Amino acid sequence: MTIHQITLTINGGYEQVDVPANMTLLQMLRDKLSLTGTKNGCNAGECGACTVLLDGEPINSCMILAVECAGADIVTVEGLAHDGVLDPVQQTIIEHGAVQCGFCTPGILISARGLLDRNPNPSEDEIREALVGNLCRCTGYLRIIDAVKDAASRQQALLT
Amino acid sequence: MATRARTEKATHPVGDSVPRIDAEEKVNGSALFADDFQFGPGMLYARIKRSAYPHALIKRVDTSKARALPGVKAVVTGDDTPGFIGLYLQDRHIFCRDRARYVGDPIAGVAAINEEIAEQAVDLIEVEYEPLPGVFDPEYGASPEAPLLHPELSKYEVVNFIFPEPDSNISNHFRIRKGDVEAAWAQCAAIVERKYRIPHVQHVPIEPHVAVAKVEESGKVTLWASSQSPFAQRNLIAKALGKSQSDIQVVAPFVGGGFGSKAGVSMEALAVVIAMKVKGRPVKLRLTREEEFFTTFVRQGVVTHFKMGCDKDGRLIAMENKFFWDGGAYTEYGVNMTRAAGYSSSGPYFVPNIKTDSYCVYTNHPVSGPMRGFGMPEMHAGLEQCIDELAYAIAMDPVQFRKINCIKTGETLVTGMTMHPTGLSECLTKAAEAIAWGRKDPPSAPNKRRGKGIALMWKAPAMPPNAGSSAKVDLNEDGTVTVSVGGQDIGQGTFTVAAQMAAAALGVPMDWVRVNTPLNTDYSPYEWQTVASRLTWSMGNAVVAAARDARQQILEMVAKAWDEDPEYLDIIDGKVISYKSEESISLKNIVVYGMSLPNDQGWIGGPVLGRGNFMPTYVTGLDPETGQGPRAVVHYTTGAQAVEVEVDMDTGKVEVLRGVAAFDVGKAINPDMVRAQMEGGFVQGISTALFEGLQLKEGFLQNSSFVDYRIATSSDAPLAIHTIIVEVPQDDGPWGARGIGEHAMVPTIPAIANAIYDAIGIRVGSPPFSSERVFLVMQDAGLVD
Asked: Which of B561, B634, B642, B725 is most buried as measured by Cβ atoms within 10 A of its Cβ?
């Protein structure tokens, strides 16, 4: 297997990684960089647990090869908080009791962050739409939806 | 006094919706799940060779080519696992030996230096089968014509409350015989008789099963697993391998969803057996999502027959029920579900005459095991539709009918047990009120029809009569408290509840309390299993006992140091205070180092360590012929759900607009987390009602991916779920608490079915109520073209 050396930005830091040609971004994050916050739920792009931001867009990291990410800017759940201050969506997910087992949570947080970055004031339908690829078996979604709404308004309040 | 009241509030978090203690680590990505542990480059990867036939004799297994493949470090087969394993009925080998009984039955296992090589090795294993006729329907399986799947059934080791029928595929037959059913039919003004077929569904935890096993030269086994049941796994694996329980250490970090699938033992023992061949090296077995759908537990399918009748005033007179549970290839765990369905077979109603036969039947389907609700959602699915029909048959409102018949405090249950105080009537009344029962709102579009439905439920923890819990409370130098439990947080929030209870019982602020993780059977106190919605009640009792034990030690020490009576002392907000002398001292520094006696006369006390346990001692056996006995179960949690749905007449699509859930939880230790259970369970129930079902053709699963097996997404959740907490205390629950986790999805299928009837006037019967099915049913009825 050919090994490629790639450089990319992960959670704001510059990384240089040797990756086999068939290694997915998910495997690289978890196995090469010990960023295990990103979860493997299906390895088929169907559950959303492995969602990360790639150049600002939420993608399933199990469906993209690491080599394709050379030069990219990746954000994982570990990169959402800054200087110990949680992202508003992390904060509201806690406050709304929208975490149960926590396995889908990293992917949900990333999808929500991606949504709020491109649409700071989403409607409930837009929130549901943005999360439709993130399966959660515990919460029933309503608290997550409320948390994202709340995060949007807090974010708006911070900006104005 | 005002100050005192505030202080007490601060130190008494029971009843407060404190945030989960594990929330922050779960949102910042640092919470560790089994797959997140790093084992270094020495770790091997396991894959499993699985049966390609639903039922076949295994004539030959040739592993020579696999063994010869570079990178392969171990290959095991059924020859390595002569012992039996199973929770209630020991009917399976870890790797099957002479016979495979479902597509996916493990035949051989491989460990290699990477997953690709392990996969290749599995493909190189040659298995010669002699296919046998299969059983794919439980009613057929129970008939004398069916081929026997377990000819040795009568020789299997079984607990004393499960009754297999020798020389049949019936691994448990539970009977209820109460009153005179035959005579009672004559007194009935209306009788409803119906049959339902409830499909297998899968739990679908978002985290697939993962197990890493390592065996030392000494024989000591360590198993890291995504596990609801580290102690049960230790116990069952030890017995199967002829080891001592103390030689097996199970480490169980956070579980990414369990719902029963990670209870008992399903795939974990496979990793252990493989690891025994490569001592010193960790062996990881991680199931693929495809394997997850059919090689761990699935929920039992069932064919239910109900016949029930009432008099002209709407009083239930008689019921006759037959349940044929599709137990799958092995029913080591599933047998107890069929028992639970039997002893709860009246549903939450007073029924004077009842006859039930609940059969657990072997089939060549995936192994049926525990799933959220443990038989109750499947049983209630039909039962609560029949109740609705019976109400209409005598022209009575279904809510009124349920008010008359629902079980009330002090009534005699189907087993002869007396019902403890219950708030079921209150749940029903409040749920009906919240859904605005009787008010018909117009549909949102001309091509839609709107309807409301309601259903009741009950469920008791189903477990051995003596399932035990224990807990430990350690005090640290700074007065903080470390609680150790053996019950697992699978998302339901049990660690938070344990911390709340310990803080309240001890008298310290909530944020002084930590809960020891991950669970480790070498260090954590014993817990039977994280199942049956039993932890808040059973483990909670143990935690309270441990905290009170620690509290007593502290009070006695301080009383001696102050020369006072412990009775006048209290612990409030982390300080010991005396109501008599008004002295006060912080727990800091005294709970580890003790206290010095006056005038330097030495020291008393020492590190405070509280211990507590709990085990119900009052559950009795039931007569095998009649199912009668003084106390069948520890208690029942009861509740009601109501829904409003819209049916799209063009597509058959059913949309749940809003839901109401009302449950009697005895006491909500953390009301917000109780509500979260009610909501999450509701949506899981909606998912099983509308979308889910394993499509098995002659034992082969057709839909083993999220594309083909759809679960509810964010767009399927109702607009709102209104939750109502009813609190009629449980006499032996901590602060009166009972469980709620599983109950939350028990009545959802029939509530939706009844609402569909209200909307379109058709009984849809067996789930799932997919768009296609509902449309076809409407077409058959001539409602649409």
From this structure: B642
Task: Please tell me which of the candidates B27, B490, B714 has its beta carbon nearest to residue A105.
Answer: B27
SS3 content of chain B, % helix, strand, coil (to 5): 30, 25, 45
H helix or E strand, kind and range, residue A58: strand A57-60
> CA triplet A65, A69, A71: central angle to 5 degrees?
160
Contact between B588 and B595 under an 8 Å Cβ cutoff? The reply is: no
Q: Which of A36, A93, A134 sits opposite B27 (nearest CB)?
A: A93
- Say how many CA atoms lie within 13 Å of B44 toward its Cβ: 29
Structure tokens of B663?
A: 């449950």
Contact B221, B230 (CB under 8 A): no
Interface check B43 vs A, CB under 8 A: no
| CA angle A130–A135–A136, rounded 5-degree value | 110
User: B444-480, pLDDT tens digit by residue?
Assistant: 999 999 999 999 999 999 999 999 999 999 999 999 9
CA distance B151 to A71: 63
Helices and strands per DSSP (H, E), number in chain A: 5, 5
Distance from CA of B33 to the nearest CA of A (A): 8
> CB distance B207–A135 less than 8 Å?
no
Structure tokens at B400: 């009124």
Are the beta carbons of B206 and A104 separated by less than 8 Å?
A: yes
pLDDT of B6 above 90: no
Angle at B287 between CA B285 and CA B292, to 5 degrees: 150
Q: Is B256 helix (H, G, I), strand (E, B) or coil?
A: coil
Domains defined for chain B, CATH in brackets: 2-31+467-614 (3.30.365.10), 34-132+209-286 (3.90.1170.50), 298-463+621-780 (3.30.365.10)
Q: Domains in chain A and their CATH numbers?
A: 3-79 (3.10.20.30), 88-159 (1.10.150.120)
Distance, in Å, from the CA atom of B622 to the CA atom of B131, rounded to the nearest integer, reads 40
Q: How far apart are the first and last CA of chain A?
A: 52
Query: Per-residue pLDDT tens for B679-701?
Result: 999 999 999 999 999 999 999 99
Give me the mean pLDDT over the B344-370 stretch. Answer: 98
Residue with the two structure tokens 């404190």: B18
Q: What angle (nearest 5°) sits at the alpha carbon of residue B610, between those of residues B604 and B614?
A: 150
Residue in chain B nearest A36 by alpha carbon:
B36
Across the range B230-235, mean pLDDT stands at 98
Nearest of A14, A22, A26, A34 to residue A52 by alpha carbon:
A26
Token pair in block for residue B69? 């493949």
What SS3 class is residue B477?
coil
Looking at residue B12, what is its pLDDT?
A: 75
Average pLDDT over residues B671-686: 98
- pLDDT band for position A158 (50/70/90)? confident
Which residues in chain A touch residue B712, judged by CB atoms under 8 angstroms apart? Answer: 140-141
Instruction: Tell me what pLDDT residue B599 has.
Output: 87
Cis ω for the linkage preceding B464 (within 30 of 0): no
Per-residue pLDDT, B728:
98
d(CA B39, CA B58): 35
